[in-house]
Amino acid sequence: MTEGIDQSELEARAARLVEAARKAGADACDAVAITGTSLAVEVREGKVEETDRAEGDDVTLRVFVGRRTASISSNTLDDIQGLAERAVAMARVTPEDPYAGLADADQLIRDIPRLDLLDPTPMTAARLADLAGEAEAAGLAVPGVSKSGGASASWRLAGVVLATSHGFTGAYMTSRHGLSMTAVAGEGTAMERDYDYDYRTFLEDMDAAVDIGRRAGERAVRRLNPRKLTTRTAAILYESRAARSLLGHFAGAINGAAIARGTSFLKDRMNQPVFAPGITVTDDPLKPRGPGTRPFDGEGTASQPLTLIEDGVLKHWFLDTASARELGLAPNGRAHRGGSGPVPGATNLTLEPGGRTPEEMMRELGQGLLVTDLIGHGVNGVTGDYSRGAAGFWFENGEPVQAVSEITIAGNLKDMFARLVPCSDLDARYSVACPSVLIEGLTIAGD
């Protein structure tokens, strides 16, 4: 379903913005034009509770006057020249930034690859309501589930254009399909809830709605009658869904902007061991049908796969043009467009799997904590200190025996990464893809 987006018109908008900025006095500039259509349906207790459709256009113009820069965004183009003049006027009064500027011309991508980013499957509110209803019904059918927390299905189609004053124009379109269900088990103050979801570029790749709902119901029932643990040190097995947050903390720590500011606990660890030997972490912007896949980055430079961690050793930062210049390095195509300009970050980040299943690891350990849910944001990016609320299951003799909640896990990410052992159950669906991981010797704060 692509009839709602005219890529040629989107390219023309970006080109008009660039031309207007040069006329207004910008020495250099770039423009990002984005248009999108989204549809979402919420279902609760078998009835459609809410349907939302959104259609919108956004443009962001970034201008440079010498080494001074400013950005301005708008959702209309009624006064292109006025928008450009305001951006240039803002740039003239901002402090100079010695690293500001467009990507070097020789870094720009020349041949834009054709990637599998767009699902042509037509989508309607009725189809989304059917999917959400199927997921909810499957969740409610699980014995022990007392009510539905709701189910939702969504679809989005977006077109993106980047144009620069030094001759680059690139465009691509993407689609996204999402489905989730939240189940509630138990009654009164003993109620517990959990959820399951899937999020894909192509609808055909998404898990069946009945499987998503069933898993949500089973997860909620397993959480009934939780207990607290006494404070102790234990082996902790992070379920894949929870383990993704650890990989996200790693991504933040190798962000080139944080490295340049000196605000990362990994700032001095390039070409040194960060993980245990044998650990591999990759980032692949060209992954087929990946949620972070893109033909070029937010500055028009080529994005190639990187092996960030090789045999446990850190090999790369995430770099856009500005952070690369500040660090005296070459950019590596990791610029993302934020509200005020590019920022470096991951695309499709993956911790490669190990050789043992989570069940095998639990049997070998005998006892420990299986973490299925994390709460809060207690991570210090400067020191690596880590403290997160958690829930999950205490296991003994390799089997979960008791749901637990209201506990806190504490440690330091430098030590945690060094002891991390990946399982074999890689969940590769998301832009941060991770198997379950084991970390021994963490502190659990409880009663």
Automatic annotation (TrEMBL):
Q: Which Pfam families match?
A: PmbA_TldD_1st, PmbA_TldD_2nd, PmbA_TldD_3rd
Q: Identify a single GO molecular function assigned to this protein.
A: metallopeptidase activity
Query: Can you give the residue ranges of the Metalloprotease TldD/E N-terminal domain?
Result: 29-91
Which Gene Ontology cellular component annotation is one that this UniProt entry carries? cytosol
Recorded superkingdom? Bacteria
Tell me which UniProt keywords the record has, alphabetically.
Hydrolase, Protease
What InterPro entries does its record include? Metalloprtase-TldD/E_C, Metalloprtase-TldD/E_cen_dom, Metalloprtase-TldD/E_N, PmbA, TldD/PmbA_N, TldD/PmbA_sf
For this entry, list what GO says about its biological process: proteolysis
Ranges for domain Metalloprotease TldD/E central: 119-224
Q: Where is this region: Disordered?
A: 276-302
Residue limits of the Metalloprotease TldD/E C-terminal domain?
Answer: 232-446
Q: Which family does it belong to?
A: Belongs to the peptidase U62 family.
Name of protein: Putative Zn-dependent protease, PmbA-like protein
Q: Which organism is it from?
A: Polymorphum gilvum (strain LMG 25793 / CGMCC 1.9160 / SL003B-26A1)
Q: What is the lineage of its organism?
A: Bacteria, Pseudomonadati, Pseudomonadota, Alphaproteobacteria, Rhodobacterales
Gene label: pmbA
